[in-house]
């Protein structure tokens, strides 16, 4: 092996130089993160679609921190600031399960985060909730994990048999697609053995706080007005899967078999990622479409209204949590 003039192997010297360069390149981000964390704990606020982030940016609720308005990590921008005097770090996750989980895990691992607030839009699977309403689910599930079975009779309610949807002979005939049996998730939690679960609960104390909120929701956007005033609906069930649901029959199946009221692509991943280390988490989803089968309404025309309403509830919740934390600190 060739030696340098100092007696060290040349390859070792080169490696050491590369390590120095890598460390120097990482210093600005590390210093920025430390600076953000010295402000104290923040609430993590995450949304999935650009329209949902646009609603926040246009609202004026979020006040950027002048000293350091954002930190870029792993291709995502984490915005530093406050809402109603409460420290907040918000990020656009991108769509579907993996993007949501990676973004939330980064928030938890890198920043001093006291909880995760998730808001966005959803399709309705329950005819009792309609456009512009905001669902605050107590339970969410990932309904995109299946065991695909071939020509076997239906064994349980947690199973979709394609033969029941045959046309024109629907009602239980044989179908070469067989059936789908829904699978549980493997939940790994700090200090506990792995457990298989189907339903994931949001944080119970946070849910009780949300139940006390009084928020006047928007009925109109720039192009459309709803026939009735939207409302906040508490305690329903939500589901997520890595697909945009636009199928009336499947929407009905989810409601009939699981009691699911809203369908989205990220909520279950957000709740599971936060639940594993024991971080409080809550979900607010505004209804933008019927998840398939709506005859005259357009989800695109109502997307921003649903985003705005979900955001309004999330903002009032953040203010309430901040007030409770401040009161508790004074008492201590």
TrEMBL record:
A GO molecular-function annotation: catalytic activity
Lineage: superkingdom: Eukaryota
Keyword hit for Cell inner membrane: no
Domain Nucleoside phosphorylase: 69-319
Signal peptide start and end residues: 1-26
InterPro entries referenced in this protein's UniProt entry, alphabetically: Nucleoside_phosphorylase_d (IPR000845), Nucleoside_phosphorylase_sf (IPR035994)
SUPFAM superfamilies xref list: Purine and uridine phosphorylases
Pfam families: PNP_UDP_1 (PF01048)
Full protein name: Nucleoside phosphorylase domain-containing protein
């Amino acid at each position: 092996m060739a030696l340098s003039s100092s007696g060290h192997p040349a390859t070792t010297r080169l490696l050491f130089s590369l390590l120095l360069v890598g460390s120097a390149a990482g210093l600005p981000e590390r210093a920025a993160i430390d600076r953000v964390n010295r402000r104290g704990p923040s609430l993590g606020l995450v949304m999935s679609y650009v329209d949902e982030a646009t609603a926040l940016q246009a609202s004026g609720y979020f006040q950027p921190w002048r000293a350091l308005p954002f930190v870029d990590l792993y291709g995502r921008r984490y915005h530093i600031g406050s809402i109603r005097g409460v420290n907040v770090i918000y990020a656009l996750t991108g769509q579907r399960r993996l993007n949501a989980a990676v973004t939330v895990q980064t928030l938890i691992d890198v920043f001093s985060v006291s909880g995760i607030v998730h808001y966005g839009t959803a399709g309705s699977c329950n005819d009792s909730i309609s456009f512009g309403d905001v669902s605050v689910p107590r339970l969410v599930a990932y309904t995109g994990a299946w065991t695909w079975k071939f020509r076997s009779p239906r064994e349980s309610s947690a199973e979709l048999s394609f033969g029941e949807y045959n046309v024109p002979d629907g009602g239980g005939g044989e179908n070469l697609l067989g059936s789908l049996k829904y699978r549980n998730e493997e939940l790994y939690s700090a200090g506990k053995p792995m457990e298989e679960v189907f339903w994931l609960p949001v944080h119970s104390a946070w849910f009780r706080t949300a139940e006390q909120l009084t928020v006047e929701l928007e009925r109109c956007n720039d192009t459309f007005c709803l026939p009735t005033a939207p409302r906040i609906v508490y305690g329903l069930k939500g589901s997520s899967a890595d697909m945009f649901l636009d199928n009336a029959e499947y929407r009905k199946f989810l409601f009939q078999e699981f009691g699911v009221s809203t369908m989205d692509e990220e909520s279950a991943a957000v709740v599971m990622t936060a639940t594993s280390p024991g971080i409080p988490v809550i979900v607010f989803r505004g209804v933008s479409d019927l998840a398939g089968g709506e005859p005259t309404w357009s989800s695109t025309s109502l997307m921003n209204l649903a985003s705005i309403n979900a955001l309004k509830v999330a903002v009032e919740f953040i203010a309430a949590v901040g007030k409770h934390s401040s009161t508790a600190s004074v008492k201590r």
